[in-house]
């Protein structure tokens, strides 16, 4: 019953957000597109800021850095720990409302709060929150962003987040090394650098690297749950890791396991590049470029990314 109520609550919140955005777009229908985009970004920023203020823990990442994998892992951990419904996917506070022992966890890409504060370089709204920054090699992120842009992104998100037009014929290399704000290497590096510059102001900060979680999930998940103040036995953690394996994630996406959560759904089941869970390969960016292109990309990263992350 609690789960059914949470599903209804989630559905109502989703409808409310969609209605607010449609009303905003209708009111602004005769205004220039740039002004409409700015208004919608501010609306989304207010929504994000409200969630942030209520959150017990924040997990922040650039898109395509492994957030869905981590969400599935934590979802299963809480499900087996607290006897919550099978296939329920952790949202902001849905698990908390079913069992108060589960913290309110705000998963965010931190896209829009700066549109409210007017200070894009500052993370002041996050200073008093426990923040987990999930980072992934920007070269792999940028390549994944290319396929996200080409096959998964909704048209309004392409415009809203300043990706190139999909009418343009852009190669993977040109997308990655270009200057678009949506998912280029430069955009990912700027994002990570902004967090590196601000981390000393955040009262509790934990860096979780995707590559470390892949290499030693037991150790990294144990450190994460300790930081979060979450109790979980080694057996529960191992079960969560197994549940969130790449093979099982692909299987869940193919079978629409989380279809009611609006996540992990392939846009085209006949196209493997349209899946949310695509390859999960560390260093896989090299597969898409010539040796000369890899050298150029590596040089761009080495010259621009903060040493905090250890990517070279």
Task: Provide a compact summary of the structure.
The chain contains 14 helices and 4 strands. With 312 residues, the protein is α/β, with parallel strands linked by helices.
For the structure shown, list the relevant keywords.
4-stranded parallel sheet; 7% strand; globular; 312 residues; alpha/beta; 14 helices
Walkthrough of the structure:
With 312 residues, this protein is an alpha/beta fold. It contains 14 helices and four strands. The chain has helices spanning 2-27, 33-54, 67-82, 94-98, 114-117, 138-151, 155-160, 172-177, 185-198, 210-215, 217-228, 234-243, 246-254, 291-304, and strands at 57-61, 105-108, 130-135, 204-209. A four-stranded parallel beta sheet has the order 2-1-3-4, sandwiched between helices. Helix 3 packs across helix 12, helix 9 runs parallel beside helix 14 (291-304) and helix 11 (217-228) crosses helix 12.
